[in-house]
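Incident review: delayed structure delivery

Summary: a single-chain prediction request sat in the queue longer than the usual turnaround. Root cause was a stuck worker, restarted by the on-call engineer. No data loss occurred. The affected request and its eventual output are reproduced below so the record is complete for anyone auditing the incident later.

Affected input:
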Amino acid sequence: MSTLIVAVIIIGFVAAICLLLISIHNKHKREAMNNLLKHFSQLATENNLIFSKQEVLNTCVVALDGTNRKILVVTKEDSFYGSFIIDLDEVNICTVKKVYGTIKAGDLKDDKLDQHLEKIVLQFTLDNKPSIEIEFYHHYHNHMYEMPELVQKAKQWGAMLSKMLKPLKQIA
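Output delivered after worker restart:
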């Protein structure tokens, strides 16, 4: 009987430690997202941007100011915040791009191609500048089950932005 009590105490102790660690992790994750959104809001105010659409992703925030035809992207890597603004007047093409990792011979017989997907990006080809990528999915930061939803989001953004580009490029 005493071994049963000891086992219950040990299991309870391990469960309590696990719950504590999960709680701490969630708190840090929430704080990181709040800091990212605070940084994003500050940059939007500084640049006088008013957003008609925005997307909060795992490691970045993307927002469109349709009136000024600009996209603000704020990213976070470790403790560093990066940001850039894309002027849609400088964009030639906006496409959704899937980047796959190395696939060894014979791997696709049993596996699906999506299991080798490394990232999904929204790629902007600009006038006389290097292309810019906004990462919607990365296999390090996102779970594989999130992939269909993030692919759909990237496609929606790509379609919407491509429609915004066509009229200006056809007139010119």
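Verification: The longest helix spans residues 2-46.
Action items: add queue-age alerting; document worker restart procedure.
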